[in-house]
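Standup notes
- DV: blocked on the single-chain target, sequence here:
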Amino acid sequence: MDRGGSQKKRHKSVANADIISNLPDVIKDKILCCLPIKEAIRTCFLSRKWRYTWASMTELMFREDDFALGNGNEDGDSVRFASFVHTFLSLHNGPILKFEMNARRVHTFSPGGHIHRWMLILSRNGIKEIQIKTRIWRNYKIPSSFFSCVELEYACLQGCIFQLPPLFTGFKRMHTLHFVEFCATENNIGELVASCPNLEELILSRLLSFADITIHSTKLKVLRVDGMFKHLNLVTPHVSSAVINLRVNTGYIPRAGSNFNLSQFIGSLLDIENISLLGHTFECAAHGIVPGKLPRLLNQLTEVTLELDLGNLKEANAAHCLFQIAPNLRRMELQLMHRGYSAPTSNFWDSVDHQDCLFKNLYTVVMNNFTGSCADSGFLELLLKDAPVLRSARIEDNNKLDKEFLKLILKMRRASKDAEIILL
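- DV (later): unblocked, structure below
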């Protein structure tokens, strides 16, 4: 028996097989979804079995910049882009699970524009994930058909406004919602969140609100809020990670009108592990944190990042109250601000009782923009005397302190013999 001859025939048979053409459809789809959309279409020339594979792709990403010819004719580039997307979606056959678009021209998002026709197609094809990014300067209205995407699980929308349709029944499967550069004139964000019973992650970036915003959710795990608000209320008991970055703008949103119910938010937390209160969050707090009135300690809170003016009585008191209800803090980072209009603390940190043991479990502290003011120095001295397990204190002063003052810092009494002060 000629075994050698049989092996040669078998090797020849494998060599002649058209492996690419005979790939399973699911593998073909994975390959196409990894390619730029125009390159994916060109795979139709590989073989007859690939000719229409692109028309059933489950993940689509369209970038208007890919259609720029570099001749300065942006209108022409935009027309080609819109025509391509419309033709592609019209010829598509099968479910579309993910749709991502990055466009930069106004007419794509204008009333009755292309986005309305495209969103209608998506709503009829089982869409689960939508990302729409734009560079236009004005907000566009989300097509009503967006709210018919009942299987939607993830949405990231930039530069938009919306109004919930009267018959909207909610996104039952939505787990992540991300709005960027969103303008709110009423509590539509709060209403939308309430209609997503399984929402776990909410990100509001560069939000501008002229209304009272109230967000109540019992399923949220991750919360990011960044923007300017007239009034903000947050009740999110099971959030484990939160970042609140409130901004003020004296141009068209009066500083006095930016209010955040910080006490209500902190009091609602049950599972918080790390929290960041940035920007003007402490300054905008309509109600301070009162430890005696809060229902519980934040025993799971191990990491905080705060941006505040230690020399402002309101902000210093709020931070002190937060430290009192967070007995298990392990890491703390402070971005120190020095607002010229702040009310002085009258040596607030010097008056804090060292027996309170505010920082008994603190392991690492970082203080950025340290100026050596009475408030900054008083807080640092309190912390060093009250942190028995401290290992590292990183002080960044932007070269504002002289050598003599730096020597005084290094000589400050420390409760932990292992504490190392690092001056940057």
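- Follow-up: Confidence is low (pLDDT under 50) at residues 12-16, 252-257.
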